[in-house]
């Protein structure tokens, strides 16, 4: 029987969260703008069996790596964001959102040959998604752009307590860039955490912790994950295939499974209600990385990330967690 993870006391959680204010995290990855077109549905179209949405308003949120950065900042830490945008209106709107949140975004590189990834969700006033339209360029970054991104990273790694690589398969997380990030961070003994996509699994060799969801872990390992024992086996196999030091599998309503630093264990789900899982993985990797940067052990950081996930899924769209919310969830 797998022993449980060491419990996280309220006093220890408070010390870690207070330490987050003195930490700094570098986030590099695929940026996106999430647009929610919201309206009421009162009838079905006579032209096709689809709902007619009467427009009320648009809402805009920072998504992908930008949402990771916002989560780090919301918890009180300093964050440097490195990413790739197009020369378009979406990029300007995204930079405006980052500026309001006081995220350091001078590391954004503009490539006028691609568009800023934008996800437009048509949503009812009851938060039911009707459809989604994606505007994106997912070709791998050119060598010139890779050089610029690597330079931005090297300019910002000094003094960082953790690095997050946020991979959404939009072209930024190339093999060469990831290898450069992990090698530089390893030389400085800075942990690298990766929110992965399975087609790029080989890119993450040498990472400290990779955070697949249960579906990604199943695809990577060809195992069905239904029990804690399944999760344990999948985490071990995933770690071997990704050649990383640790794995945190997020399992939705079944909680999480951690395999790292000689520890293995299940973390039960903490969500009391689920409104929207959009961006929950961003919150998990952000909280995990920041807690480690603040001096937490991997097991402590995983428990805080688990609590943060339970908070954020009760909110609509990509969302963030405050220190007060996180501490309240650990009491």
Give your account of this protein's structure.
The chain is an alpha/beta fold and 331 residues long. It has one domain: UDP-N-acetylmuramoyl-L-alanine:D-glutamate ligase. The protein contains ten helices and 13 strands. The strands form two sheets. Strands 5-4-1-8-9-10-11-12-13 form a nine-stranded mixed β-sheet, with helices on both faces. Strand 12 (256-260) and strand 13 form a beta hairpin. Helix 2 packs across helix 8. The protein is globular, with a radius of gyration of 19 Å. The two termini are 27 Å apart. The model has no long low-confidence stretch (mean pLDDT 94).
Task: Provide a brief overview of the structure.
The chain is 36% helix and 27% strand. It is of the alpha/beta class and 331 residues long.
Rounded to the nearest angstrom, the distance between the terminal CA atoms is: 27 Å
CATH T-level fold name: UDP-N-acetylmuramoyl-L-alanine:D-glutamate ligase
How many strands appear in the DSSP assignment? 13
* Total separate domains: 1
Largest sheet: 9 strands, mixed
Element-by-element helix/strand order? HEEEHEHEEEHEHEEHHEEEHHH
Structural class by secondary-structure content: alpha/beta
Shape: globular
Sheet with most strands: strand arrangement? 5-4-1-8-9-10-11-12-13
Portion in beta strands: 25-35%
Q: What percent of residues adopt helix (DSSP H or I)?
A: 25-40%
Name of the CATH homologous superfamily: Ribokinase
Question: Any idea of the CATH class?
Answer: Alpha Beta
Rg, rounded, reads 19 Å
Counting DSSP H or I runs of 4 or more residues, the number of helices is 10
- Unreliable residue stretches: none
Mean pLDDT: 94
Overall CATH architecture: 3-Layer(aba) Sandwich
């Amino acid at each position: 029987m797998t022993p449980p993870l060491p419990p996280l006391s309220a006093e220890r959680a408070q010390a870690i969260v207070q330490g987050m204010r003195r930490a700094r995290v570098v986030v590099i990855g695929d940026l996106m703008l999430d647009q929610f077109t919201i309206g009421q549905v009162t009838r079905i179209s006579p032209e096709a069996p689809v709902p007619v949405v009467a427009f009320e308003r648009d809402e805009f949120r920072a998504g992908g790596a930008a949402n990771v950065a916002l989560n780090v900042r919301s918890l009180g830490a300093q964050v440097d964001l490195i990413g790739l945008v197009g020369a378009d209106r979406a990029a300007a709107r995204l930079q405006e959102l980052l500026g309001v949140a006081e995220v350091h975004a001078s590391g954004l590189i503009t490539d006028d040959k691609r568009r800023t990834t934008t996800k437009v969700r048509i949503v009812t006033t009851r938060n039911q998604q009707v459809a989604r339209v994606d505007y994106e360029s997912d070709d791998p970054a050119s060598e010139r752009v890779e050089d610029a991104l690597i330079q931005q990273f090297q300019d910002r790694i000094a003094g960082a307590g953790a690095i997050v690589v946020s991979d959404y398969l939009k072209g930024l997380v190339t093999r060469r860039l990831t290898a450069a990030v992990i090698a530089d961070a390893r030389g400085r003994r800075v942990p690298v955490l990766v929110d992965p996509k399975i087609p790029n699994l080989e890119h993450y060799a040498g990472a400290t912790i990779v955070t697949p969801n249960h579906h990604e872990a199943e695809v990577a390992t060809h195992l069905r994950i239904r029990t804690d024992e399944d999760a344990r086996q999948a985490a071990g196999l995933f770690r071997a295939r990704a050649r990383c030091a640790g794995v945190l599998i997020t399992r939705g309503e079944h909680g999480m499974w951690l395999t790292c630093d000689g520890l293995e264990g299940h973390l039960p789900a903490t969500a009391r209600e689920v409104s929207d899982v959009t961006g929950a993985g961003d919150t998990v990797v952000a909280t995990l990385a920041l807690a480690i940067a603040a001096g937490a052990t991997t097991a402590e950081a995983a428990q805080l990330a688990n609590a943060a996930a339970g908070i954020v899924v009760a909110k609509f769209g990509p969302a963030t967690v405050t220190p007060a919310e996180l501490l309240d969830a650990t009491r």
